[in-house]
């Protein structure tokens, strides 16, 4: 048997006519369509009901039944649930011995969101969309745009670049009003470049996670909040120190510019990394989830800082080979030794059961 299901997701039929749903049978659906058309001739669900009757009349080679089911005027979840319950009622009224298939009739993309709910109850042979010819695809376009704007990821992808483009003209006017007309293109290009780079690296997710951790830490009274603030201040000082080191150079090339910035800022950046790492270690210890490997981070920071300082010093003209060798070797050994030491400590103190196993693994009794 083929069941022609006319879908009215927002329950225009019930709200405007007072007819109880589901409506089952050709005559009942015709009466419902006439009643809805009498109350609201512009309602597109009138076309859905008459199209269901039209399909019912056209099919003569197999048993067929037509029914109208409605949802509720509210959230999509509640509407889909209501449609599912009415579909169960319709199926219960049909002959249980026959294989029932459904042909869904809707008036646009919004009503078609209930298709998965119906598919979970009966096999679907097809979906027939009915719209007024003068408004072809209008409703579908509206709900497509609505769904795009409701999706946070898609909204950020489309609306943020559009907002930046709309800000270009007022930003240019503001920069020219400040007396820097030649800087407008550079500022706009820089903003677009930062946005594209942030999107490419997924910086928005990192920023959201950082804000969430900071908020939760603030309410929980975590030590990391204080250490992160101190680390941010150290990073700012490091940036200023790097710029000052760059200003001491005369006519530097590209490598010397990078080396100067690194040389002036690396010790402050290292201090910021160690501070934030120790704050996190402290919180892990207070929470009872401390692991020895967490202490590896400060030593990693020191190791990387030593190597970068030696490399930057070399490009700035330092040719003291003994100093460079000590810094490079010491930084590398510090990273390797700390990794091995804390790995052994974690295996010995955090997982002592591993040392009680014989060469054949854990014993079984």
TrEMBL record:
Transmembrane segments: 156-175, 181-198, 219-237, 257-278, 299-317, 323-345
Keyword check for Transmembrane helix: yes
Keyword Iron: no
UniProt keyword terms in alphabetical order: Membrane, Transmembrane, Transmembrane helix
Pfam families: DUF373
Domain of life according to the entry: Archaea
Protein name (Swiss-Prot/TrEMBL): DUF373 family protein
